[in-house]
């Protein structure tokens, strides 16, 4: 095999030993159709496919990585194959958001300390982690859209490494206080379309409940626009409130500043410890890649509409799903 076609395996094909509790395994069976037999067969099938797929240049082969796709696709191997290829192409085409997901970088550390996005140490009654967003602390004159995407990528990629979160999914709580029109200018409407649509279809996370509070009337039109982009399934899980007191969520899951028990600063410090534990694997992900020359020009250039309809890992339609994610956000054009 020529050097150009040599495939790199960034992690080994480990023998999986399920670390999940009996309760979590029951959830996996009921919601994802996951059994020991289904899991072992699907992992073997995915690894065989990755070994034979000429488009894959460098990939992780460990079970935790592959299971994130199998679980979001309820153990449909063809759908998981498509998702993996889309995901790696996305990382490569949209490097500004997916590469260097290092929480110790000065700007990232600053945004995390501000509490722009972090995860509560508590789980809800369904065993799910709660992601807390405070976009109002993001200074649109100081930080860039790339900074915003990268710090969110750090959070999401860290959670993707957690098998409990893979199975049980996530709860989201967002405080829109302080968000104004300048925040909306960080992204053009065309860019927003790509971020939302590709995010929902490509990032292997299960979003179970979404709570929003303090949405200012001046940005409500943007929220309505965003709601129109997401699937009906996710849209039904979004609940908006005027006051924090009205949010139908167990307040102890939230920082003390929102009616909880633990001060926000302490929650953030605990979250930073989790980030430190996963920092190495997140940086290793930068080495994953596909052979861009094996995708059509349209696949490399991008078009959100390519996400619609049937796709197959046997042709360029998988790559087409990522059209629109190359280059700087400001240079992108929508079809």
Automatic annotation (TrEMBL):
<dbReference type="Pfam" id="PF00650">
    <property type="entry name" value="CRAL_TRIO"/>
</dbReference>
<dbReference type="InterPro" id="IPR001251">
    <property type="entry name" value="CRAL-TRIO_dom"/>
</dbReference>
<dbReference type="InterPro" id="IPR011074">
    <property type="entry name" value="CRAL/TRIO_N_dom"/>
</dbReference>
<dbReference type="InterPro" id="IPR036865">
    <property type="entry name" value="CRAL-TRIO_dom_sf"/>
</dbReference>
<dbReference type="InterPro" id="IPR036273">
    <property type="entry name" value="CRAL/TRIO_N_dom_sf"/>
</dbReference>
<dbReference type="GO" id="GO:1902936">
    <property type="term" value="F:phosphatidylinositol bisphosphate binding"/>
</dbReference>
<dbReference type="GO" id="GO:0016020">
    <property type="term" value="C:membrane"/>
</dbReference>
<protein>
    <submittedName>
        <fullName>Alpha-tocopherol transfer protein-like</fullName>
    </submittedName>
</protein>
<feature type="domain" description="CRAL-TRIO">
    <location>
        <begin position="107"/>
        <end position="266"/>
    </location>
</feature>
